[in-house]
Amino acid sequence: MNGLGIVAALIAESRPLGSATRRSTEPTTLADGTQLIVTGVGPAAAAIGARRLLASGARALLSWGLAGALDPALAAGTVVLPREVISPEGRMLLTTADWRERVSAAIAANHVVSCGRLLTCREPLGSTAAKALAFSQTGAVATDMESSAVAEVASAERVAFLVVRAIVDTAQDALPEVALNATSIGEDRLRLGRLLATLARTPGELPALIRLARRYRSANRALSAVADSGVLTREIRREFAGGALP
Q: 149 Cβ partners below 8 Å, 6+ apart?
């Protein structure tokens, strides 16, 4: 093991890392020595997964996956490496500066990177109005549903913490009901049957769903490129070797 533990909510989010095809209650060790756990959607599941990674020997935690943009300037595929994560209760939690800066510098030549705040919510922000309000109230550039829970565990245990997220839906995109209904809290995958049933009731949402699928491909390419670059394990090994991380 290399000391890095990664939390991903969905199986689809974990695939660029080379994960197994199903969720497990215990971490999977990847070929490079990284430990990965797929937890299902939501902060409660993410916190449990983070604790299991630490119990399995991880010395640094990373929240990995997709995010929705709140800042209108962020396009699909932008890589978000936030300096700060805001919990649903409004608590501000910091990511590990040296680690974040090294990863950002390593990928910025090939990818658009934002280090603005990330807001964790208990429910998806599906409307453009909700996104605009969250942006104005918090200053966060993007939102997810897991990172602050991982940050809370990292802070309590005094281990290094980083977030790597790729933007799917932009601030101008309203999430269609068909997408919102495809996954629920605690689930680890999109439910195709549920998606098709919702689409049958609301066929007018098909164009928005197709647009979201294009956005997803951009985000997935960004995550795959970051994973394939080896920057995460290279930088974590460097940090541990230099004694900079706890």
A: 43, 44, 46, 47, 50, 87, 120
